[in-house]
Specification:
Elements: H1 11-19, E1 28-31, H2 41-56, E2 61-63, H3 73-85, E3 88-91, H4 96-103, H5 108-117, E4 121-124, H6 126-130, E5 135-136, H7 139-144, E6 152-153, E7 166-169, H8 183-186, H9 188-198, E8 204-208, E9 212-217, E10 222-227, E11 230-235, E12 238-243, E13 246-249, H10 250-259, E14 263-264, E15 278-279, H11 292-308, H12 312-329, H13 338-359, H14 364-384, H15 388-400, E16 403-408, E17 411-416
C-alpha cells in the first residue's frame, strides 16, 4: 500500500485479504519495527490496533520488535512466536532504513518469506512497503538529512512474487511539496532518475500512489490495483501506469518492468506497449475516491447550500457527517494537515449554525404560503361547483407534499406537517 493503510480507503482491501485466509478468528499481528524509534510508538500501535478492531473487524496483536539492541530475550521470543503463528502480518509507517537495521540478522525476514510460502498474507505499507524489494530507498536520510541518493539492500520478498529486482516506491504521487517536487516518496524526479541509474540493468521500480494498494496473488499469479490511484511500473524514466480497478498477470508486470514503456492505461483498456488488463468488480473500487480532504470539501459545499436555503436539519446533518468523517480518518497514519483543516471546517460550521439560530431560519410558510393558498382557493372553487374529484385530488397532492388541510366553519385552514 502506498499510504492510507489505516484509513477508510483500505478497509475493504484489508477485509478481502483476511477473508481469503479462512474462517475467523484469523491470527494477525502488527509488526511495529518501522516506527519503533519514535517517541509516540505506543500511540501509533494503539491506533492501528483500534483501527483493525473497529473498522476492519479484526483483533490484531502487536509483535514488538522495536530495537534489536535493547529487547530482552523473552520479549523477542514472544514476538517471534506471535509472528510465526500469524496468518496476517501488517507493518506501516516509519523509517525503512531503521526497520532493516533492526531486522538484520534476526529471524524476521525468514518468517515473513515463510508466510508467502505457506499461504499467509504480508501487508506492508508506506515505509514498510519500501523494504519489500531487492533495493530500498533510505528516505529520511535523503529527503531530510540531505545525503546523496543511494539504495540499501531490501528484504527482496517480491522475488517470491515473481518480481526479482523490483524496488517499491510508495507515496508515488505525493503532492505535499506545493512549490517543490515531492513525488516518488518525497524524492522528486531528479533524485529518482539518479537512483534508477544505480540499479542493476534488469531492475525496475514499482510506484504505488497514495491511498492505493497492489494485491499480488501468488497462487493465482496476478496483480490487482485497488484504492484511488495507480501502480506505475517504471524503468529508466519510462513507465506503464495501471489505474485502480486493473488486474494483470504478475508475468505482465515483470515484462513491463524489464522492457519499459511510456503509456497510461485505463482500467480494462488497450495499448500498444502495456500489458493486457481486465476490469475489476465495482466493489474493489468503491472507496477509490475517498479522502478526508474530499469529504471536507463536499460537506462544506452541501452545508453552505443548506444554510442559504434555511434548511437547519440538512445543515446539522452536514456537521454530524463531518464529525463522523474526522473520527473515521483519525487513525490514518499520514494525514499531514488534513485533520487540522477538517476541524477548522467543523468549527466554522458550528459558528454558522449559531448565527443561523440567532437570526432565525426563515419560516417555510412564508415561501410556500402563496402557492398553498392558490391551491386551497382552487379546491374551494371545485367544491362549490360540485367537482369533488378535483377537490379530493388537490387535497391528496398537498398531503403528499406535507401540507394538511382542515375544513372549518370559518373556511379551510392548512398547516405544515413536521
Amino acid at each position: 500500500m502506498g499510504s492510507g493503510e489505516t484509513s477508510p480507503t483500505m478497509v475493504t482491501t484489508h477485509r478481502r485479504l483476511i477473508e481469503r485466509l479462512g474462517p475467523p478468528p484469523v491470527p494477525a499481528v502488527l509488526l511495529d519495527t518501522p516506527f519503533g524509534f519514535q517517541s509516540n510508538a505506543d500511540v501509533l500501535a494503539r491506533r492501528a490496533v483500534d483501527y483493525f478492531r473497529e473498522s476492519v473487524g479484526l483483533d490484531i496483536e502487536v509483535a514488538t520488535w522495536r530495537s534489536a539492541a535493547t529487547a530482552s530475550t523473552l520479549a523477542s521470543e514472544r514476538s517471534l512466536a506471535r509472528l510465526r503463528a500469524a496468518r496476517y502480518v501488517f507493518a506501516g509507517p516509519g523509517s525503512p532504513s531503521y526497520a532493516l537495521r533492526q531486522w538484520a540478522g534476526s529471524p524476521v525476514p525468514e518468517l515473513l518469506a515463510a508466510k508467502l510460502e505457506t499461504g499467509g498474507c504480508v501487508t506492508f505499507a508506506s515505509a514498510a512497503a519500501l523494504t519489500l524489494g531487492a533495493a530500498t530507498v533510505p528516505v529520511y536520510e535523503i529527503y531530510k538529512v540531505g545525503e546523496d541518493p543511494r539504495w540499501l539492500p531490501g528484504l527482496d520478498l517480491l522475488s517470491a512474487a515473481g518480481l526479482p529486482g523490483a524496488a517499491v516506491i510508495p507515496h508515488y504521487d505525493n503532492a505535499e511539496g506545493g512549490n517543490h517536487d515531492t513525488r516518488f516518496c518525497y524524492l522528486g524526479e531528479p533524485r529518482l532518475a539518479a537512483l534508477e541509474h544505480q540499479l542493476d540493468p534488469e531492475a525496475f521500480v514499482l510506484g504505488v500512489d497514495e491511498h492505493t494498494g497492489v494485491i499480488f496473488d501468488l497462487e493465482g499469479e496476478r496483480a490487482t490495483v485497488v484504492g484511488k490511484g495507480s501502480l506505475t511500473v517504471r524503468k529508466q524514466g519510462r513507465s506503464v501506469e495501471l489505474p485502480a480497478g486493473t488486474t494483470v498477470t504478475i508475468a505482465e508486470v515483470r515484462a513491463a518492468g524489464q522492457a519499459g514503456a511510456t503509456t497510461r492505461r485505463e482500467a480494462g483498456g488497450g495499448g500498444d506497449h502495456a500489458p493486457s488488463t481486465s476490469s475489476t468488480p465495482p466493489e474493489d473500487r468503491q472507496e477509490a475516491g475517498s479522502s478526508l480532504a474530499e469529504a471536507v470539501g463536499f460537506l462544506e459545499a452541501r452545508f453552505d447550500v443548506a444554510v442559504a436555503e434555511g434548511d437547519v436539519d440538512a445543515a446539522v446533518a452536514c456537521v454530524l457527517d463531518l464529525d463522523t468523517a474526522i473520527v473515521a480518518w483519525s487513525r490514518d497514519s499520514l494525514q499531514s494537515d488534513q485533520a487540522d483543516v477538517a476541524r477548522a471546517a467543523l468549527r466554522r460550521m458550528i459558528v454558522r449554525l449559531g448565527e443561523l439560530a440567532s437570526a432565525g431560519a426563515p419560516d417555510p410558510r412564508g415561501a410556500m404560503g402563496p402557492l398553498v393558498e392558490a391551491l386551497v382557493d382552487a379546491r374551494t372553487t371545485a367544491r362549490l361547483s360540485g367537482d369533488w374529484a378535483t377537490a379530493d385530488a388537490v387535497r391528496n397532492q398537498l398531503l403528499r407534499a406535507g401540507v394538511e388541510l382542515s375544513d372549518t366553519p370559518e373556511g379551510t385552514r392548512w398547516r405544515l406537517l413536521s
